[in-house]
């Protein structure tokens, strides 16, 4: 448990930040899942936006974001060539 006042304050701040990070991660997961299911240009754009926002805020790393976007684009392209 935190002992000093600054440690207690830092703990409170981390709990507040956690709420936002969990929310961003949940949005990231749902939009990615929807984009993978639908594989339309609009859903792909929404997924890209969520991935970029999560990477910008530090929820996921930059390389992870690039990998996710690449895999989504690859899946989208594969479905377009089948049509």
Describe the SSE topology.
Blueprint: H1 5-38, H2 41-57, H3 62-82
Helix pairs in contact: 1-2, 2-3
Task: Put the structure in a nutshell.
The protein is an all-alpha fold and 83 residues long. It has helices spanning 5-38, 41-57, 62-82.
Estimate what percentage of residues fall within beta strands.
under 5%
Based on DSSP secondary structure assignment, what is the total number of beta strands? 0
From the N-terminal CA to the C-terminal CA, the straight-line distance is 58 Å
What ranges have pLDDT less than 50 throughout 5 or more consecutive residues? Answer: none
The radius of gyration over CA amounts to 17 Å
- Overall mean confidence score, pLDDT: 92
Largest sheet: none
> What global shape is seen?
elongated
Secondary structure class reads mainly alpha
- Figure out the total of helices: 3
Tell me the helix content: over 70%
Order of helices and strands: HHH
Q: Could you explain how this protein is built, in words?
A:
The chain is built from three helices and no strands. By secondary structure, it is an all-alpha fold. It has a domain at 29-83. Helix 1 packs antiparallel against helix 2 (41-57) and helix 2 (41-57) runs antiparallel to helix 3. The termini are far apart. The mean pLDDT is 92.
């Amino acid at each position: 448990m935190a002992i000093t006042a600054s440690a207690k304050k830092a703990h409170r701040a981390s709990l507040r930040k956690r709420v936002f990070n969990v929310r961003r991660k949940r949005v990231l997961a749902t939009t990615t899942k929807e984009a993978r299911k639908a594989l339309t240009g609009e859903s792909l754009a929404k997924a890209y936006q969520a991935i970029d926002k999560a990477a910008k805020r530090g929820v996921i790393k930059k390389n992870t974001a690039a990998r996710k976007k690449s895999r989504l684009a690859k899946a989208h392209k594969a479905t377009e060539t089948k049509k």
